[in-house]
Amino acid sequence: MFSFTLLSKMVERMVSLSVGIMLSTALLHALPEAFESGADTHKLFATLLGGLLAFFMLEKLAILRHSHHHEGDGHHHAHGHDAREAGKSGWMILIGDGMHNFTDGILIAAAFLANPELGIITGLAIIAHEIPQEIGDFIVLLNAGFSRRRAYIFNLLCSLMAVAGGLIGYYTLDQASGLIPYVLVFASSGFLYIAVSDLMPQMQRRATVRESVPQVLLIGVGVLLVVFLTGAH
Fold first, then answer.
1. Which of 64, 140, 147, 180 yields a CA-CA distance of 20 to 30 A from 87?
2. Position 221 pLDDT exceeds 80
3. Which regions span the lipid bilayer (predicted)?
4. 15-43, pLDDT tens digit by residue?
């Protein structure tokens, strides 16, 4: 509700917060968790590379589709930010977030199977780091041209991937647990690509001191939020 009311009125400013949240979620939380799991390091880096290239191709397809849609329509289309062009980052964030939520569901299932108390603590810890992340995702969807209602519905559907992960994890945990590091790395590649390729270039277009100072401060706030909430558990 906080995102839906207050933050949605300041989308351009809040993009900076989203960048801080996504970069720190990927680099300080998800990737360390994946690499500390004991999975093969070379395979994890290969997954990261594959994920970055996959999101690049997804964006390329979105741009080609956009260009084809407007080809020969007789109108001049500016090279600056427009909602339809930015929409590609919205769909990419949904894919990355959905996969991240899926792994969270598996982790919660694993914790409950080990010990119900551990399951509750793990669930609360995941809720804590999901709150800033979902706020960041919501802002990215609004920035990509989604209406507030549509952004909320798609974010909600994405969150339900945690339920799917929990159910699959509960019934097939022996097989599913080995996939967690790779899914985390793939989801992280999406967060990194969107932040660096789509959101940061938008921020660089407004390169005045008056715009840059709030951008840097909000990135810092996003990082601190993730550090505080992930460190708390």
1. 180
2. yes
3. 42-58, 152-173, 179-200, 212-232
4. 788 888 889 888 988 898 889 988 899 99
